[in-house]
Design a protein that fits this description.
With 101 residues, the protein is mainly α. The chain has a domain of 66 residues. Helix content is 53%, strand content 8%. The protein is built from six helices and three strands; from the N terminus they run αββααβααα. It has a three-stranded antiparallel sheet. Helix 2 runs antiparallel to helix 3 and helix 3 packs across helix 5. The longest helix has 14 residues. The radius of gyration is 14 Å and the shape is globular. The model has no long low-confidence stretch (mean pLDDT 89).
């Protein structure tokens, strides 16, 4: 296997259990890919908070196998407090808050 294939085949989008009482157990958040991070940064400069939070949470919220489980549209009616908590956990896990320091 060449170095390029080694890089491309690596499962490097780590995940961690999500800490939220509101939605129960078995949920995880995952790292964003490089392209997803670039798209998030672009969106954050263009859009208001509501759509941005739903998009971000739906991207990082996964099952134990790393599979996405819900869409942004489906999250629109969920608790803003819970959504913001997951958003903040995801930002921290992805190192976004670290970049501002």
């Amino acid at each position: 296997m060449g170095l390029k294939n080694q890089i491309l085949s690596a499962d490097d989008l780590t995940r961690q259990p999500l800490e939220t009482k509101a939605w129960g157990k078995g949920l995880f958040i995952r790292e964003l890919s490089g392209l997803e991070m670039e798209n998030f940064i672009d969106k954050s400069e263009e859009e208001n908070g509501s759509k941005l939070i739903c998009d971000f949470v739906s991207t990082i919220l996964v099952d134990e196998n790393g599979k996405k489980i819900i869409t942004a549209k489906e999250l629109k009616g969920k608790s803003s407090k819970v959504m913001r908590d997951i958003f903040n956990q995801g930002m921290k896990f992805n190192g976004v808050d670290e970049e501002k320091n």
